[in-house]
Hints:
By secondary structure, the protein is an all-alpha fold. It has 17 helices and 2 strands. The model is unreliable at 1-12 (pLDDT under 50).
Amino acid sequence: MYTTEPRGRSNVSRSLIGTWLLVVLSVVSWRPDALFDGGFDVVVIAKALVAFTAFLCALLIHSRSRMQARVGVRSVILLFIVVGLSCVGALAAESAMPSLVLAVRIVLLAATVYVLASSAAPREVLTALFVAMGILTLIGAASGLPQFLSDGRLPSGIPAMKPNELAGLAAPPLLAIAVDIAQRGLTPRKSLLLVTFAAILLATGSRTTLVVVVIAIALAVVLAWPVPHSTGIALILLAPVSYAIVAFTNVVSEVAIRGQDVSELATLSSRTIAWQAVFSIPMDTWHKWIGVGLAAKTIEVNQRWWDVQVLDSSWISILSQAGILGLIAVGIWVLFTVRDSLRNRELRTLTLPLLVLLLVRSALENGLIESSVVFTLFFLTSLILERGHRYPFERDRPVRFALAVAPLPAPTEKLALSPTRTR
């Protein structure tokens, strides 16, 4: 086994970060209040071009990488089962075009992630994705400050994202920084990054993401124990600070209640209304078993002031989009990935808290099976944790125009000296 030179490794990392920036830019919202209905406009075409450019860059990185990885196919098969079921359901529902377009988008995204996962070491690929997400988080938060000052919740200005989506973009880099601190210790640079991303997450006012991030960080500390001395000292100092914030400020109450009444809190911001509508679909319909396609983002509800409700849950969305069969396939996929994370001693300190963040948050947010940052992270994590993943994996490349060379003659014994002449 050999390693690349430091300079070449730096170039590969920059290429990975640049490609992941394109990937993340192609899956985040550019128009947060618009749902795709099958039409094509400037934004749809622009996002498609960015996604295709990212795929081409991934192929270029893969072709130039000196050491590559062998990636398994289990995650790919399960993804195609879910997408295939949703496409059949969309055809049965006679609304195929939007779902087929979304299916092509998620397949192109999966192909890009697959190529990048096979182009470098697992930790390097994950780190590059975290860096790309962090860069877009900082840009979005900085551009959304004027709206934060007027509304009280921090959205993303460029690209335009709602506060909950910005929180989902900021949470994984924050968790990655916390894991690195738990494993390697605290430094001034890490402290600054941790405080910055934590402040962004808190300013978004996303309750689900904030709670799940705290749980994931606590799990990371437990998995990394014993922690370095600097991290231990920081944890000791964090206890009185946390108590002061909870006891002497109203930050927790403002984030927890956020101006809502009892009925809104009881229905999880009206989420349970949509969930009950999905659960009430009759068992003897194709909708219940194979769904109606990936374009199903809302469902009709019987309410006094509105008749359509967004499916704010990845699992309820999967049930509506791919039916019970698709939900079973995703459940099997998740169980395999969690099992692989528990068995991987090298990566589980990072991947297990990350899976907790993604999967628990997906109960109240969309994105697990669609073109999104959540799916990108989950698919990449499942690929690098599969038992079929090997790094480095060097293939014997055939030599073109090889010349046939005759074998060297076998060594012979030293010739005996000729006898001396006799007189």
